[in-house]
Amino acid sequence: MLDTRLNSIPRFALPYTAADFRAALMAVFGAPPPPKEFGLLGGSPKFWTGSGRQALRLLLTSLDLAPGSGVALPLFADPSLAAAIVAAGHKPVFIDIDPVTLTIDPRIVDAASGRFDVLLAVHLFGHLADMPALLSAAGDCAAIEDAAHAPLSCLNGRMAGNFGIASFYSFASTKYWPAGGGGLAVTHDPHMARRLQSLVATLPHPSRLRELRNVFMQGAKSVVFSKLWYGIFGKPLRRWADDWALLEPRLEQVGIQRSYAAVACRQATVFAMRVESQRANSLHLLSRLAGAEEVTLPRERVGARYNYHLFPVLLRDRRERDAVVAGMWEKGVDTSTIYCGVVDECRRLGYTGGCPVSESVTERLITLPNHAALNSHDIDRVADAFLASLRGWRTARPTYPVYSFGVRKPVAP
What top-level class would CATH report for the domain 18-201? Predict the structure, then answer.
């Protein structure tokens, strides 16, 4: 057991290097660098923000919406998005998702026409939402893209973040560029850009003492998320932080920390290579799991190229999901049940039901490790642990009820 814990595979990567740490320390006593390294996201104006969800709040404010306007968004997404909408003075309109891509369903957006003034399209796990169909369904309503999971993902040759009027990104620890925090807002509309520039200019900078504390915290997290220390320290600390909500996103109206901006710029220079490595790992993992029955895997839709920010897998039920999670950790492979609590959190923000696919997905989804730091042997180990855990559970429960697209289908005993 100790050998397994000393060679465990973390659920997420945290590629925060010693050079990142040095750059962060130096930046604390300077000014935030301009986001010039993010030309890879296109040529539209870009603005540093305190976080991704703060970027959404600022973008909504820059649209000059009437108070209480409806903002359509998928229920199955980071619940901090709905919180940001409420903080901006508007009303979340929760829309169900497509059962395969797990992104907002254009048909339900069309059916909700008249109930919202802004569409928030979330490109989840690196999978692009069907933007042409969504823009058609949204009509004259403004469309904002949450591209935090999808930088460099493309649909029909067009990159995520370049379909709507604006988009935003995040540099939190679990993202592709884990600077520790902060965000980036991008707008393709000149009027919005002028308003956004004024809004961002009013944001105060956090204190240098707070920045120094966060720099050392990020450095420490990068150590415990390594394969050597994750099983001994990272996993227990992560559970403790989750229980006490220490890593929950905040909606403070403060500017980006100088250290986060500097590290994000550093990481942007190697970002494309990281994406290619993670994509290769994901395609390898897909090939290894291709024969698994009654499992939904993250395959690319026609015309799309995903960055595979995360590797989501849908199983038959909560009990099967929990059994696989436990079985894989016994083999030293950690997994995530990301957003599994979104239904309860969004009920506090106005959700009253009507999204059965999303509710089913929260019961059945896990993400498997696929990060760029893993080698081919590691990916084989992830696949073997998943298949063995799944086989062990199904062998013990041969008449287990299965689910298809959120609808229960009984199996004869």
Answer: alpha beta
For residue 338, CA distances in Å to 101, 228, 280, 352 come to: 16, 23, 22, 21
From residue 317, alpha-carbon distances to 53, 310, 334, 384, 406 in Å are 31, 20, 19, 21, 9
| pTM exceeds cut of 0.85 | yes
Question: What superfamily does domain 271-394 belong to in CATH?
Answer: Aspartate Aminotransferase, domain 1 (3.90.1150.10)
> How many angstroms separate the CA atoms of 348 and 370, rounded?
33
Integer Cα distance of 90 and 68 in angstroms: 4
H or E, element range at 365: strand 365-368
At 285 the three-state DSSP class reads: helix
Domain with CATH 3.40.640.10 in the chain: 18-201
Q: Which residues lie below 8 Å from residue 362, measured CB to CB, with a gap of 6+?
A: 76, 339, 340, 341, 342, 343
pLDDT, tens only, 331-374: 999 999 999 999 999 999 999 999 999 999 999 999 999 999 89
